[in-house]
Design a protein that fits this description.
Elements lengths: L2 H4 L1 H8 L2 H13 L7 H11 L5 H6 L5 H21 L6 H17 L3 H17 L3 H17 L8 H36 L5 H14 L10 H17 L3 H17 L1 H6 L1 H18 L2 H15 L8 H22 L2 H4 L1 H12 L6 H17 L3 H12 L8 H17 L6 H14 L5 H12 L8 H13 L10 H4 L2 H10 L3 H15 L1
Length: 516
């Protein structure tokens, strides 16, 4: 990681749009600060730097080294205040919090009635927009004021607030339990990955059932349903029940399409739900639904009412383009997919501060797979080496594993035999360190290790043997997912039939469409 990525202030300054920079300078002017203010001078210096350079800042002589840290902290705070005042960042949550702040000021001035009036409006706004945690906080504040100043405007005011507080408390507790369960399941997924046998499935199922709170679906609001579907989705992913993944991701996405206002309020959850829906459809190979869902998502993100900020723009790119690659993998249209590679690489540069390195590596794997399918094996190897040679982060073991296996196959296809034996040994050493390898991976390694002892005229027979062996795992619920990372079956068929792999996959895809 570079220094400019590590320095939070520099990254924040560089993330500002032209209008946000202009607003910041106007905001500073309203403060009555002159143009020679140290924090404004620091802002202008950082704005002009192409990368963070502390020595270049100190050379300007605006501050001593010992004072720079405090000045940077002050500038950081002032930029955030300016951004908060920007109309483009005035979300419902910020508006509710702002009203709560105003009510607090009025309360401390002893203007109780005015404070209660603002709180009541803020509470209705919060409940109407599923912001139930802050709604509960507002009610607790209303109770404090009512206990000191009886308005007598409503005779049963105390009972009304008590009932509201109780209902919101119960809803918040349920939402908290469901969100905790969702997060715990996601943590398990990151730690252990997908279940690999019946024993692990039983363990995860017990874990899920023991922690799933009791609920009545008819009484759940938008937020509670969202967390419920998320929890079920992660349980389904862990147990590799992709039909169930499709079921709950569909419910998740439908929840947003049925409540359009929530798309504007929670665009990140909307995007994530669509991504999981598309991922489920990709695993199930439901082509028409996949294509339709991807097209719908892309069109919604282009609507004028769809919210746009740096985070949302980066996530929309991440999810839409990941699934554009997947669409080409389903169709076998590898050659047709190549034009998007340059576009993706350019956007990765643009969003480098907003997309974590793991997701960049996933993109590299997809690009490598696209080149492999198109028969451009050297370009495939180039991107795989970016993954294999990356020592700066922890990646999912399955990504590292399949990157190495695909790398071996691409070297074999490219006729780069001079270092194939050494590559097989290093890959084998890496894989045996992994626990619970897929049977598919084990068979592939056995095959590749024995390639050196096979005479050229015997190779096709060995391909046929391996194909027969791997076909046994194609419908195994714990093994079949391995084929989604690397379509070994189609590669073997391409070798047996002496056809390009892209053509083999395309023929299968078209035959499947004809059967429907």
């Amino acid at each position: 990681m570079t220094k400019e990525q590590k320095d939070n202030l520099f990254v924040l300054v560089k993330s500002l749009s032209k209008s946000e920079k202009r607003q910041f300078k106007l905001y500073v002017g309203r403060l009555g600060v002159n143009e020679d203010s140290k924090f404004l001078l620091l802002f202008n210096i950082l704005d002009k730097l192409s990368s963070y350079d502390e020595s270049a800042i100190l050379k300007k002589g605006i501050v001593k080294k010992q004072q720079l840290s405090n000045l940077k902290a002050h500038l950081y705070k002032q930029i955030l205040i300016s951004l908060r005042l920007n109309p483009s960042h005035q979300t419902i949550r910020i508006q509710i919090r702002e009203q709560l702040d105003f009510a607090t000021i009025l309360y401390h001035k002893g203007l109780y009635r005015q404070s209660l009036k603002i709180l009541d409006k803020a509470k209705n706004l919060a409940i109407g927009n599923e912001e139930k945690n802050v709604a509960y906080e507002i009610i607790e504040f209303e109770k404090v004021i009512e206990s000191q100043y009886i308005t007598r405007s409503i005779s049963n005011r105390a009972d009304e607030l008590t009932i509201q507080a109780k209902e919101l408390s119960q809803q918040n507790v349920l939402a908290s339990k469901l969100s905790n369960l969702s997060l715990q399941l996601y943590g398990l997924f990151l730690k252990t990955g997908y279940v690999k046998n019946d024993k692990e499935t039983r363990r995860i199922t017990k874990y899920f059932n023991d922690r799933l709170p009791k609920y009545n679906i008819n009484t759940l609001g938008f937020r509670e349903k969202l967390w419920l579907y998320k929890a079920h989705l992660w349980y389904s992913f862990l147990t590799q029940d992709f039909l169930s993944c499709y079921k709950y991701s569909s419910k998740w996405v439908a929840l947003f399409y049925d409540n359009k206002d929530q798309i504007v309020l929670n665009p990140v959850f909307f995007l994530k739900g669509n991504h999981y829906l598309l991922e489920s459809l990709f695993y199930l190979r439901h082509y028409n639904k996949f294509k339709k869902s991807l097209k719908r998502l892309e069109s919604v993100t282009k609507e004028s009412w769809f919210p746009v900020d740096d985070n949302i723009e980066g996530l929309a790119f991440l999810y839409i383009y990941n699934n554009k690659f997947n669409l080409h993998f389903i169709e076998g249209s590898f050659q047709e997919g190549l034009p998007i590679v340059e576009e993706v690489l350019e956007r990765l540069k643009k969003y480098q501060d907003r997309i974590d390195e793991h997701h960049v590596m996933v993109f590299y794997y997809k690009i490598a797979s696209l080149y492999f399918g198109a028969g451009e094996n050297k370009k495939c190897i180039f991107f795989l080496e970016k993954i294999i040679g990356n020592k700066s982060l922890e990646m999912r073991e399955d990504l590292l594993c399949f990157a190495r296996v695909l790398n071996l196959v691409a070297h074999y296809e490219a006729g780069m035999d001079y270092n194939l034996e050494a590559l097989i040994k290093s890959t084998y050493k890496f894989l045996i360190k992994m626990e619970d390898l897929y049977e598919v991976q084990k068979e592939m390694i056995k095959f590749l290790r024995g390639l050196g002892d096979i005479y050229p005229h015997e190779v096709k027979g060995e391909f046929i043997k391996l194909h027969k062996k791997l076909k046994e795992f194609e419908d195994d619920p714990y093994q079949s997912r391995a084929f989604l990372y690397l379509d070994i079956i189609s590669w073997l068929e391409s070798k047996i039939e002496s056809k390009p792999i892209g053509l083999v996959i395309k023929d299968k895809f078209e035959a499947k469409l004809l059967r429907k």
